[in-house]
Amino acid sequence: MQAYKRTVFYAAIMCLFFFSPDESLAHSSREIICPLNCDQSRELFLKNPPFKGEDVISLQASLKDLGFYSSQGSGVFDSETEKAVSTFQKKFGLEANGRVRDDTWDILVRAVEKPEPAANSPPPKGKKVILIDTGRCTLTLMINGEPYKQFPVGLGKSETPTPIGTWKVVRKATNWGTGFGTRWMGLNVDWGIYGIHGTNKPYSIGGYQSHGCIRMHNRHVEQLYPWIDVGTQVLIVGNPFLYMDPSFKLMRKGDVGATVTEVQSALKRLGYDIEVDGIWGEGMEKVIIKYRKDVGLPFDNAVDRAVYTSLGFKG
Question: Within this chain, do residues 279 and 132 fall inside the same structural domain, yes or no?
Fold first, then answer.
């Protein structure tokens, strides 16, 4: 435990002192902005061919925990699953139609989740920093540089990655929107709407399935929420290029994200007049064309593997 505490502490210190928001190791893809409805679930119902997948497995497991479903979870939404859903809906005052929408997910998750012991106890006084490890899928609350409480989280898919970098909590809300669970803590990411929030997809915790937001079990985010003030620093760490497939994606004008930020930072360190904001606009377009000419690359307005390599990036 002591070794892990030291690892987490040094990771936090490195981000604080070596990676400013302008220089955070990061990545991006085209249009990775998380829309307001990005965490809504697909609707499940009986059809031919039937729905299959992790969400069906989670649904069946939750219904079984509550005594509405007795079979082994097959991951197939069949007639037995539909019947179990209808029975659950009737008991909890929902329309018993056997269709699983967000309202059914929300109540199902609340029924299954157990409250955390001493969830309302305040943390020790001191400087609070949230450290999110994209490799371990963990969120650690640091107090005065020491780990205080750690939670499992769900993170962004490779095409919509969680933004690595140094951010701050800029807004807090309860029941912010459908699919976001019971609590929302928004971050000051320049190129989109990202936050730490609850979820009605507990099966996604510990993996990479979101549109970039950080998902937590509702019972966990409800515990964390009162401890965090607006302005609390959030460090999201990890190897940015592990998110990308291929490692060096072709980028052009209109791209946004942390990879754009990283390229902008590298160019700025070389003395180019460029704004580091993660958004590829007119100014960056001119700089990329000039940089390619300066280093002897063929005329183009793209960041390709040749540009990444010339800037020193390794994937």
Answer: no
